[in-house]
Amino acid sequence: MIVEDTTAAAWVWPRCAVATTLTSAEIAVLTGLTDPVGPPPPDRAVCELAAGHEQMHAAFIIADAGGDRWWWIRWNRQGRQLGHLDTCDHTDRPSGDDCLLPATHPGRHSFQM
Ligand SMILES: [Zn+2]
Ligand SMILES: [Zn+2]
Questions:
Q1: pTM reported for the whole predicted model
Q2: Closest ligand relative to 48 C-alpha
Q3: Average of per-residue pLDDT values in the chain
Q4: Counting ligands in written order, which one lies closest to the CA of residue 49?
Q5: How far apart are CA 30 and CA 51, in angstroms?
Q6: What is the pLDDT of residues 35-83, one digit of tens each?
Q7: How far is C-alpha 22 from the geometric centre of its chain's CA atoms?
Q8: What is the 51 CA–ligand 1 centroid distance (Å)?
Q9: What phi, psi does 66 have (nearest 5°)?
Q10: How many domains does the chain have?
Q11: What is the mean pLDDT of residues 22-45?
């Protein structure tokens, strides 16, 4: 657990917000999960990373395994990856909010946006 103090960050950083449409193959994988949590997977996903980030776009799709396993779609012009990823281990100091992005994500943490 890494705690960051964002007290001085009074401004809000925008999110990337680039969208993608899930392929039928990706939907088939997600609807095949035996223990999904929450609503069925959407057919469209919006990147949740900080605007101007490096690496691939990333959007949370669905959780399974009792909510402990989070599935993400990651994509860019070169390709796409659908899979479950560990969550970032950073926590905001003043609010106690956890970062909800995948571990090793580029750019700012979710509590900084
Ligand atoms: Zn993005
Ligand atoms: Zn983070």
A1: 0.86
A2: 1
A3: 92
A4: 1
A5: 27
A6: 999 888 899 999 999 999 999 999 999 999 999 999 999 999 999 999 9
A7: 15
A8: 7
A9: 70, 15
A10: 1
A11: 93
pLDDT, residue 38, reads 87
Distance 45 CA to ligand 1 centre (A): 11
Cα(86) to centroid(ligand 2), Å: 11
Residue 33: how many CB atoms within 10 A of its CB?
16
Residue ranges making up the domain that contains 85: 2-112
CB 89 within 8 A of CB 58: no
Ligand 2 center from residue 104 Cα (angstroms): 7
Residue among 30, 91, 32 at smallest CA distance from 62: 30
Distance between Cα 53 and ligand 1 center (Å): 6
31 — phi, psi (to 5°)?
-75, -15
